[in-house]
Amino acid sequence: MLHKIDRSNVLFLDIETVPETYEHHQLSEETQHLWEEKTRYQRQDESPEDFYRKAGIWAEFGKIICISVGYFVPGTRDTQFRIKSFTGQEADLLKEFKSLLQQHFNKKNQRLCAHNGKEFDFPYIARRMLKHQIELPDQLQLFDKKPWEIPHLDTLQLWRFGDYKHYTSLKLMAHVLNIPSPKDDIDGSQVSKIYYEDQNLERIVEYCEKDTLTVAQLFLRLRNEPLIETHQIHFSP
């Protein structure tokens, strides 16, 4: 079934998120209380203040600072894979991402693909769009759709083969399938510090783009197709 999908009809993506404020004390008193309630069972022995460093994984307490997308350019003799990133104020980058979907990935046979996207990237983007009162594009509007009508691919779920207890990170799956590691500079736990303290968004964008490329490489490997080579990668401003 996977081989029947035209790869030029797939938009690969990855997002980077951070806590909505850098420090716990910067939250309003009400939000601090809601954070304590939300994470009561996850924190174990950690205080709400210490555990707040992980707030970026919850759409209610985090925000998106980068969305990187990649796609195979159709109609070319040699494989061309184009990568583009959206950054800036969250509402603005979400509107730009939505515009891309509506203009270029709006057909029924086109799909979004991410690693663990069905549990993280796709719902996170949708929730943050609603936070900013942005009407959801069709690709993220899942209400009343049958499972086979949802235009999402998830490399983690493809690797699970129905085993929903099994989680495999992007880095581990790439290693197992002999794909060059995407994690050669930073990891997710460092993104917040790099964003708020170092103010080095460019470094985060590069990290996000590497993950997007790796998702596409996993897709190819799962189809037993040749990987994308360096000279085939192009970046859009």
Descriptive report:
With 237 residues, this protein is of the alpha/beta class. It contains eight helices and six strands; from the N terminus they run E-H-H-E-E-H-E-H-E-H-H-H-H-E. It has helices at 29-38, 48-51, 90-104, 121-131, 155-160, 170-176, 191-196, 201-222, and strands at 10-19, 62-72, 81-87, 111-114, 152-154, 233-235. A six-stranded mixed sheet has the order 5-4-1-2-3-6, with helices on both faces. The chain is globular, with a radius of gyration of 18 Å. The chain starts with 9 loop residues before the first strand and ends with a strand. 32% of the residues are buried.
Search tags:
single chain, 237 residues, alpha/beta, six-stranded mixed beta sheet
Q: Can you describe this structure in just a few lines?
A:
With 237 residues, the protein is an alpha/beta fold. It has eight helices and six strands.
Cα radius of gyration in angstroms: 18 Å
Largest sheet: 6 strands, mixed
Q: Regions with pLDDT < 50 over 5+ consecutive residues?
A: none
Strand order of the largest sheet: 5-4-1-2-3-6
